[in-house]
Structure to design on (929 residues):
């Protein structure tokens, strides 16, 4: 898509989980206001409430989604900045045709890698980005990639274990 | 160790029932709930720690776009919460920075926020007090007319007329006279840490009639919103529904303030109103730990026998008391479980001060009391050169020994001797090799000193209060458990399904549990005090057994056999020994019928649980930085129900204002302005993935006389032994008795004489 950053315009396009949405800019219903965060647009305008907002201060990682494959904090990103970008949320990880869960989702189920589950969508999205970039991360790679994610129940050990099982399976 | 282990589900890891919803983002938390016509409520908060509202003008806010109601102390309902009832929805007097001044309901959150800026308030500022001992002086500012000297009464009506508020037993003077080692001093655990679940508290309220209120809340104990709030709101019929809860750790058992705000706004607008706190409000106007200061004296004999404990426990509850009195009662009980002693003289003062209030937090009084008292106790062990593992092992309550519990009654433990669990934990940790004596590091690498410490804790609340459940057998060989049990991370809803599936010999996927809704379920006290396994478990197991009995009675004629001779497996009923000649449930129950059993658990405070925690820390004496290297927990749970859920509860000791309150967690209160200085997740410190210690759980399973599966819960207690264990380890590492929590670099360097604060 052409760079439109220097052009004044009254609509933007977001490609969310492979579906293209066009929004008018404004503060009416179904529009995107200039001050709307991506988290708000995803949750309230598109109804994708799987993205969680824990702190709304850019500090807990729970609102993490992928922007052109890169994990970002959707509570700290303005929607208008995402014009023309590909966004993947937790709702977009399952295989659309078969309904099969992403390997990370499945591993989290198998290892009960969550307790209250509120941080889980953000952690899974960051883990997806990690495994896309580095299919066989070390334990340290995993911990570094997730170090911005707050989990108060302390499911960290089970999360690391779940992710390690995926990488071990691939090695075999 | 294990006597019977022939279980299908109990003790085996099974996926949580809600796992797919959680990992796909479909689990519905409070912020995800949208009701038709719903408004959003926001709160205007006081910038002053203490003051009177002299004038409040809401006219501009009322005319703001989208605003449907503005409430002040002049027009809110006359409801009062707190113990005793003293916390109004809104008051003319503000008592902490962040206290609620006005409420707005509007069509959107943004509109409500905008309107807050248009409320004009004039305050008369009053002097404020933040320190417990300052607050009880005769010339101190007074928070409440009804609590002179800022001293609050210690009664808890639901605990009965003899609620435990002191321990006075034997003769302490004689005890000290017979002691070989005595230490005296003041211990302080006053960092008023925040349990800080990721999801902030939130409530939606809707009135369906003048006396009929429905609330949706992010909570761990749905029924608290009903049975606790009924009397405080003039007895409306309250229906409470728990949404999936994004963590609680006690704090969101019930959210009295958001519930008041949402219910008041819903009443005046006749529309559903959602009030979800922001993270800043979560830090500045929701639940903190109690402040705890213990000034006293401990005496022991050479052999580690505790001869006397004497002192005054000063408990700081902040601007109001939600359940501080209940925490005092349970904390005093828990101290007796930890320390066997014949001579006690502990008195308590509960004090209110001008800061955000303390509320219910995992550890519930015991963590606060022990973390303050153990540093004094440690000095006697140091004098006597007594190994703390030997000391705690000797003094933890044994079967047949007694203690006074929260109700003021004397209970005798019929739990087990946890010595073996303690010893196994010590072995796993390598205590014998690492322990070099008091104030001695176990290793020195240049500026880095390694030290070890240990703590123990237990609670007899595993059998607290009442649980009721129905278990309904459906003709299609599925089962529905009716129990008012929420999900805030413990996995207890799934564990209860496992207990029922095991009892009825059914595949786990055929057993489900109703939503946590007080309308459709009988009473359950909630998931507190590690009571889910024993108390709630007993109720659902009895209900399942009752249903099975009824099923066999119904099958008597069909199978021409006495009920006692019948059995059921996988939805078939058959004569014992002839599973191939069975009939399906539907032939017994009938397609248009169901078969329901009932179970009830009555309180039992005679089964204390136990946890020990061993920690290894490294302190850099140049920088003062304290690193947690290793944690080993030791417990005996009778029978594991779900291994990953149990592991999660034990790992959880790091989070929810647990171990890390000794290392870096604190709410920083500015003593000049009364403002909290770290109301965000950058400045409030928390442990990240990159800083995890090595963590091992030593879990024994020796059957315990609770219910059919001989299990006992330990979830709530895991945080409690941590802070004092780290305190001990850090003191040993640097070779000096440290002071205060958390042991941030400044405190350590000051203790080492390297800086002057």
């Amino acid at each position: 898509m052409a760079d439109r950053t220097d052009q004044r315009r009254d609509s933007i396009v977001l490609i969310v989980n492979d579906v293209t949405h066009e929004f008018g800019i404004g503060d009416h219903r179904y529009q995107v206001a200039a001050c709307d965060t991506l988290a708000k647009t995803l949750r309230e305008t598109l109804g994708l409430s799987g993205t969680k907002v824990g702190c709304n201060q850019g500090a807990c990682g729970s609102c993490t989604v992928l922007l052109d494959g890169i994990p970002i904090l959707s509570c700290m990103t303005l929607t208008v900045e995402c014009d023309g970008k590909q966004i993947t949320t937790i709702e977009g990880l399952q295989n659309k045709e078969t309904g099969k869960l992403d390997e990370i989702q499945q591993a989290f189920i198998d290892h009960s890698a969550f307790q209250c589950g509120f941080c889980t969508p953000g952690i899974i999205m960051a883990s997806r980005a990690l495994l896309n970039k580095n299919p066989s991360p070390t334990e340290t790679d995993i911990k570094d990639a997730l170090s911005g994610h707050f989990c108060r129940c302390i499911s960290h050990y089970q999360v690391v274990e779940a992710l390690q099982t995926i990488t071990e399976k691939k090695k075999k | 160790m294990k006597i019977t282990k022939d279980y299908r589900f109990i003790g085996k890891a099974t996926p949580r029932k809600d796992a797919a919803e959680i990992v796909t983002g479909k689990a519905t938390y409070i912020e995800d709930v949208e009701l038709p016509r719903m408004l959003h409520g926001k709160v205007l908060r006081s910038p002053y720690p203490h003051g009177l509202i002299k004038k409040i003008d809401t006219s501009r806010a009322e005319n703001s776009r989208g605003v449907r109601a503005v409430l002040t102390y002049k027009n809110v309902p006359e409801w009062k919460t707190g113990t005793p009832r003293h916390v109004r929805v809104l008051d003319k007097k503000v008592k902490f920075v962040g206290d609620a001044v006005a409420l707005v309901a509007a069509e959107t959150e943004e509109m409500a926020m905008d309107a807050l800026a248009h409320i004009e308030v004039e305050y008369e500022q009053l002097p404020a007090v933040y320190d417990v001992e300052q607050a009880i002086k005769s010339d101190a500012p007074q928070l409440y007319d009804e609590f002179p000297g800022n001293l609050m009464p210690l009664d808890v009506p639901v605990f009965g007329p003899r609620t435990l508020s002191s321990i006075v037993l034997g003769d302490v003077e004689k005890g000290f006279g017979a002691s070989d080692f005595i230490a005296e001093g003041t211990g302080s655990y006053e960092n008023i840490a925040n349990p800080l679940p990721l999801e902030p508290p939130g409530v939606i309220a809707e009135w369906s009639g003048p006396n009929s209120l429905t609330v949706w809340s992010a909570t761990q104990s749905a029924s608290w919103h009903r049975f606790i709030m009924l009397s405080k709101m003039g007895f409306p019929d309250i229906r409470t529904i728990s949404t999936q809860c994004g963590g609680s750790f006690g704090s969101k058992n019930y959210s009295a303030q958001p519930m008041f705000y949402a219910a008041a706004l819903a009443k005046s607008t006749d529309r559903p109103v959602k009030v979800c706190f922001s993270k800043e409000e979560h830090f500045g106007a929701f639940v903190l730990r109690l402040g705890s200061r213990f000034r006293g004296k401990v005496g022991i004999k050479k052999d580690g026998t505790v001869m006397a404990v004497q002192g005054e426990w000063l408990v700081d509850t902040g601007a109001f008391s939600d359940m501080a009195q209940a925490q005092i009662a349970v904390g005093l009980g828990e101290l007796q479980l930890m320390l066997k002693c014949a001579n006690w003289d502990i008195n308590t003062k509960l004090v209110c001060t001008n800061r955000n209030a303390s509320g219910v937090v995992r550890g519930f009084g015991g963590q606060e009391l022990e973390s303050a008292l153990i540093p004094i106790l440690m000095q006697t062990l140091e004098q006597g050169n007594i190994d703390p593992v030997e000391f705690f092992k000797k003094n933890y309550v044994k079967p047949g020994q007694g203690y006074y519990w929260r109700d003021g009654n004397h209970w005798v433990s019929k739990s087990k001797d946890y010595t073996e669990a303690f010893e196994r934990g010590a072995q796993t940790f390598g205590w014998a090799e690492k322990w070099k004596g008091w104030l001695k590091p176990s290793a020195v690498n240049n500026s880095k000193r390694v030290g070890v410490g240990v703590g123990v804790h237990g609670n007899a609340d595993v059998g607290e209060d009442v649980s009721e459940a129905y278990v309904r057998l459906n003709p299609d060989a599925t089962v529905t458990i009716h129990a008012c049990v929420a999900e805030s991370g413990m996995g207890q809803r799934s564990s209860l399904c496992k207990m029922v599936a095991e009892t009825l010999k059914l595949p786990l996927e055929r057993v489900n549990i109703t939503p946590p809704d007080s309308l459709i379920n009988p009473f359950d006290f909630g998931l507190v005090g590690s009571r889910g396994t024993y108390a709630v478990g007993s109720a659902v197991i009895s209900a399942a057994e009752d249903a099975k009995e009824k099923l066999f009675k119904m099958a008597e004629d069909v199978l021409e056999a006495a009920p006692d001779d019948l059995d059921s497996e996988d939805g078939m009923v058959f004569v014992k020994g002839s599973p191939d000649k069975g009939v399906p449930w539907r032939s017994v129950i009938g397609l248009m019928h169901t078969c329901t059993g009932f179970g009830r658990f009555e309180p039992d405070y005679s089964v204390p649980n136990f946890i020990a925690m061993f920690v290894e820390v490294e302190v850099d004496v140049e920088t003062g930085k304290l690193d947690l290297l290793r944690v080993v927990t030791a417990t005996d749970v009778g029978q594991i129900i779900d291994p990953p859920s149990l592991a999660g509860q034990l790992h959880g000791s790091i989070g929810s204002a647990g171990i890390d309150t000794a290392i870096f967690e604190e709410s920083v209160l500015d003593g000049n302005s009364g403002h909290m200085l770290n109301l965000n997740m950058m400045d409030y410190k928390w442990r990240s993935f990159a800083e995890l210690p090595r963590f091992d759980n030593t879990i024994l399973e020796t059957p315990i006389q609770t219910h059919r599966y001989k299990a006992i819960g330990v979830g709530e207690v895991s945080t409690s032994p941590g802070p004092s264990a780290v305190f001990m380890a850090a003191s040993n590492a640097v070779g000096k008795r440290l002071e205060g929590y958390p042991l941030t670099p400044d405190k350590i360097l000051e203790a080492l004489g390297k800086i002057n604060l």
